[in-house]
Write a structure and sequence with these properties.
By secondary structure, the protein is α+β, with helices and mostly antiparallel strands. The protein is 36% helix and 26% strand. The protein folds into 2 domains: 2-135 and 328-353, Aminopeptidase; 140-326, Gcn5-related N-acetyltransferase (GNAT) (Aminopeptidase, 3-Layer(aba) Sandwich), CATH 3.40.630. Strands 1, 2, 3, 4, 5, 6, 7 and 17 form an 8-stranded mixed sheet that branches. Strands 11-12-13-14-15-8-16 form a 7-stranded mixed sheet. A two-stranded antiparallel ribbon has the order 9-10. The radius of gyration is 20 Å and the shape is globular. The protein starts with a strand and ends with a helix.
C-alpha cells in the first residue's frame, strides 16, 4: 500500500463517484473551496498495485481553540465492510502532514455507518472520541430509487421512485403545509444566477443565526462554495418568494447522483407562511427529474433526544418521509499536549450547547 499526494482531479472524483457512499465534502472541488478561504487542502491517495483504493481530503483549520487537520467525511475507502484495512500508512502520512503545518491534533469524521465492522475497520491506534462531532452523525435521507442505494450497494435494476408515491409517504402535516404554501401564493424557484442572488440567502442566514444562536459558516465560505460548485452545475440556490419578498432560501449540492440539503435560512417576518416546506418539495422534484438516487437532508437529533439543538429541524426533515443513517462518531488523534487544552474547552462548549 502506497500513500501519495493527489494532483489529478478527474482521477480523484472518478474514484469517489464509484463508491456506495460518495460525500461531496470529499470531492476535489471542496479542497478549492477551503483553499479560497485560507485553509490549506490536503489530498492523499492510497494505492495498491498502482490502482487507487482510497482517498482522503482534509484541510488545515487555524482555530483559536487549537490548530488542527480536519477530515470531513473521510477517508473514502474501497469495499467498505468487505475487507480489513491497515490504515497505518495513511495515518502516519496524515500525522506527518499535520505536524508540518503546526497542528496539535487530527479530527477524522468518516462517512462510515455505525456498526461493529465499520468501527473496527477504521479506528486508528491512539485515537479517542472527539468531544464534539465534526459533522452530522445522525442523517435523514430519502431514497429516490428502489432498492435503497445506501443499504443495497447493487446498482443494477434500480427503479426510480414515483413523485406521487414520495408525496403520499410524507407526514400528513408536511403535505398540507406544501399545499398551503402554494395556495398562499408562495413561489419556489431555482436561481438562474446563484452568485448574483447569494446576498439574498446571506441576509436570511444572518437573521436565522441570530435567532437560533448557532455558530455559522462565514459569508466567505458560502461565496466560495457556491462559486466553485455552481461552475460545474453541482449547486442550486433555491428562493421562496412571497408578496414580492424572498422569505426563505436554501443551498443544495448535487454530486454523484446525490442531492444534499446543505444550508437553509428563513425570516420570522412571515413565520406563519410554510415556505421552507415548498422549497424542499421543489428540490426533491428537481432531484427526481435529474435522476438522482439519494436526497440527503443531513443532520437530525439522535433518537429519543427531546432536548437537542437539532430537535426542531428534526421534525421538519422527517416529515418528508425517509430513513435514518447513523455514522461512526468522529475521532481525534492528538499530536501534542496542546490538544488537551482544546479538549477541555470543547467539553465545556458541548455541555453549554446541550449536546
Amino acid at each position: 500500500m502506497e500513500v501519495s499526494e493527489a494532483s489529478n482531479p478527474g482521477e480523484w472524483d472518478a474514484f469517489l463517484l464509484r463508491q456506495q457512499y460518495r460525500p461531496f465534502l470529499q470531492s476535489f472541488t471542496m479542497g478549492e473551496v477551503y483553499r479560497e478561504i485560507g485553509q490549506e487542502p490536503v489530498r492523499l491517495c492510497v494505492r495498491e498495485g498502482g490502482e487507487i483504493v482510497g482517498i482522503c481530503f482534509g484541510h488545515i483549520v487555524p482555530a483559536r481553540r487549537g490548530r488542527h487537520l480536519s477530515i470531513p467525511y473521510g477517508p473514502v475507502l474501497l469495499d467498505l465492510g468487505h475487507r480489513t484495512w491497515d490504515l497505518g500508512p495513511l495515518i502516519n502520512t496524515l500525522k506527518e502532514v499535520a505536524r508540518e503545518h503546526g497542528c496539535s491534533f487530527i479530527r477524522m469524521s468518516p462517512f462510515f455507518p455505525a456498526d461493529a465492522s465499520a468501527e473496527g475497520a477504521w479506528t486508528p491506534q491512539g485515537a479517542m472520541p472527539s468531544p464534539l462531532h465534526l459533522l452530522a452523525e445522525h442523517l435523514w435521507y430519502l431514497p429516490l430509487v428502489d432498492p435503497d442505494p445506501w443499504i443495497d450497494s447493487k446498482t443494477e435494476n434500480q427503479q426510480p421512485m414515483a413523485e406521487s408515491d414520495i408525496f403520499k409517504n410524507m407526514r400528513a402535516t408536511a403535505r398540507n403545509l406544501i399545499r398551503r404554501a402554494e395556495k398562499e401564493g408562495v413561489e419556489a424557484v431555482a436561481s438562474q444566477d446563484p452568485q448574483r442572488d447569494l446576498p439574498l440567502f446571506l441576509a436570511l442566514h444572518n437573521e436565522t443565526r441570530r435567532r437560533h444562536h448557532f455558530t455559522p459558516y462565514t459569508d466567505a465560505f458560502f461565496c466560495a462554495q457556491v462559486a466553485h460548485f455552481s461552475k460545474q452545475r453541482q449547486c442550486t440556490l433555491y428562493l421562496a418568494r412571497y408578496q414580492g419578498e424572498v422569505i426563505a432560501a436554501s443551498i443544495h449540492m448535487h454530486v454523484g447522483g446525490e442531492t444534499s440539503y446543505h444550508h437553509g435560512a428563513s425570516t420570522m417576518k412571515y413565520r406563519n407562511i410554510p415556505a421552507s416546506y415548498l422549497l424542499q418539495w421543489r428540490a426533491i422534484q428537481d432531484a427526481l427529474a435529474r435522476g438522482d438516487h439519494i436526497y440527503n437532508f443531513w443532520g437530525i437529533a439522535p433518537p429519543n433526544a427531546s432536548i437537542h439543538p437539532f430537535a426542531g429541524v428534526t421534525l421538519f426533515k422527517t416529515g418528508f418521509g425517509g430513513k435514518s443513517l447513523e455514522l461512526v462518531h468522529s475521532m481525534d488523534l492528538p499530536l501534542s499536549k496542546l490538544y488537551h487544552l482544546t479538549r477541555a474547552f470543547e467539553l465545556l462548549r458541548k455541555w453549554r450547547r446541550g449536546f
